[in-house]
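Researcher: Here's the sequence for the chain we discussed earlier.
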Amino acid sequence: MISHSVYFTAPRQVVVQQQALPYPASGQVLVKTVLSAISPGTELLIYRGEFPASIPLDESLTALAGDFSYPLRYGYSTVGRVSQLGEGVDPAWLGRLVFAFQPHTSLFITEPELLIPVPQGISAELAAFLPNMETAVNFLLDGAPLIGERVVVLGQGIVGLLTTALLARFPLASLVALDRYPLRRQASLQAGAMACLDPASPDVIERLLSLQPGGVDLAYELSGSPAALDQAIAVAAFSGRVVVGSWYGQKRADLDFGGRFHRNRIRLVSSQVSSIAPELSGRWTKERRFSQAWKGLVEIDPRRWITHRFPLAQSAEAYRLLEEDPAAAIQVLLTYEDL
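Model: Thanks. This is the structure I predict for it:
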């Protein structure tokens, strides 16, 4: 059996390489990929070579063992069907549609306990949004929005849109978003934001504060731009919370801590989906969070934000699009029908 996988071999260099796979051993299964989703925030850092080489790829995911050094495989949103079973595996797994935190690859061997069965009635395309929806759920758990609060979300990529869509279900006083690109600003209004502003506008802070007088109680920095974190601090009210969900890689943040930050007791909250916040871990498990994420996918149905589908063989073109024309893309999928 031959598997075709995406490899990042150098900055802005992506190739599809072949690898021979054995038959699944005892206790293992073979999964044939239907599609996988590109997470542009994290994956573009890898594509550009902007990752920190001193940390592991992801200590919480078995499929992402190793460190940040070329060549490497990456990706964590793969949907496929179990096509072969090793000895001792429950026959009920055969043919099941499953989600896996796997790099972009056409075939992979894994243990059933590392797979997440896709619930009945959920399509492969909808299931591909699971990790980003889980991240959005985690942002709300960490930010803990309250009734009547004023909230801003900086960044309306797919994670930002999902976060906005979840927040729109809360009885907030106001919900405003920021994004550079018109397509995403339009999607943000569809997701439930009352307004979506251009963060590059010279009067964006004044406009945001006119929509949310007194400043915001809760800000989410999800743009991947360190400059946006400074904007979040600038609009936070007294004792406001700023949830930092972006991963900046090697990018440094130049922050104004000499102004309102200190006297206004603004709180910065680091949010990352690999773990549950300690104050919640006694009641919230990853299984509970996944259950909430599946529910959110059904209710919001983010498939409307899929803008591009590329065959795996054209994966280099997909990353080039995200790098050179980000205004045109929201969610990009890789497909595997021809393999």
